[in-house]
From TrEMBL:
SUPFAM superfamilies on file: NAD(P)-binding Rossmann-fold domains
Protein name (record): SDR family NAD(P)-dependent oxidoreductase
Domain of life from the UniProt record: Bacteria
Organism: Orlajensenia flava
InterPro entries reported in the protein's UniProt record: NAD(P)-bd_dom_sf, SDR, SDR_fam
């Protein structure tokens, strides 16, 4: 997938992408680095993958650091932001990509803790580093974005409800962000082939992904959707601060 950003689109800027040691987050970081950004690769427990990605970016002439943080732990989030400030001074692009809730063995409230509460904690911790002209990008799914009007698979419903709650909590901050010169945009996509979420859904509900693919006509893969996320960091803010990716005809 070609980089949607010009090679100098983010020259001199710093981008932090949560949950970026693999998947959509990792490819988003690659696009940012190729566009000249200094990138912060955040991971929870996949340090080896994060370090490998950072080495790849540096090998291509880019600038990257890795910072581990449990986003559900406010102290860990503050420590991450302190490390970013020490290294780069501030943040120009903050991508709220990390999410979860389908993992086994987690507490009943984990999805809400990560997909709503942690998103606000990360934003609050980042605010002192975000200057006028910076941008916050929140990554979600159509199944979550439209959950109030369109039912989703039962296995995904707790995640969808918690991600919509996170989106609503962030949207409530738009006026405050705009007053500080900070842009905000939501990027919503259908199920993405090749993601952990898709794998877990397919395991819980065999045939779910192929059925959704048949209904939509096609599903984006990881690199294609990451390209949309990367573009959202620089493109004009769309109507209602929402960038819808892929088919939405099945969503009201």
């Amino acid at each position: 997938m070609a980089n949607p950003l010009p090679s100098d689109a983010l020259s001199g800027k710093t981008a932090l992408v949560t949950g970026s040691s693999r998947g959509i987050g990792a490819d988003t970081v690659r696009y940012f680095a190729d566009a000249g950004a200094r990138v912060v690769i955040n991971f929870r427990n996949k340090e080896a993958r994060a370090l490998k990605l950072a080495d790849e970016i540096r090998g291509n002439g880019g600038t990257a650091i890795t910072v581990g943080a449990d986003l559900t732990d406010p102290a860990s989030v503050r420590s991450m932001m302190a490390a970013v400030q020490d290294e780069f001074g501030g943040i120009d692009v903050l991508v709220l990509n990390a999410s979860g809730g389908m993992e086994s063995g987690m507490a009943a409230d984990y999805a809400m803790l990560l997909n709503r509460d942690a998103q606000i904690d990360v934003l609050d911790a980042a605010l002192p580093l975000l200057s006028p002209g910076s941008r916050v990008v929140f990554v979600t799914s159509h199944q979550a974005h439209f959950i109030r009007t369109t039912e989703t698979m039962p296995e995904y419903e707790p995640v969808a409800l918690s991600k919509r709650a996170g989106e609503d909590a962030l949207r409530a901050r738009i006026e405050e962000l705009q007053a500080s010169g900070i842009d905000f945009v939501v990027v919503s996509g259908d199920m993405i082939e090749g993601t952990i979420t898709a794998t877990l859904l397919e395991r819980a509900n065999p045939g779910a992904i192929s059925a959704r693919k048949d209904a939509a006509g096609r599903l984006y893969n990881v690199s294609e959707f990451a390209a949309e996320v990367a573009a959202a960091a620089v493109d004009p803010i769309p109507e209602d601060n929402t960038r819808l990716v892929g088919d939405t005809s099945d969503f009201a």
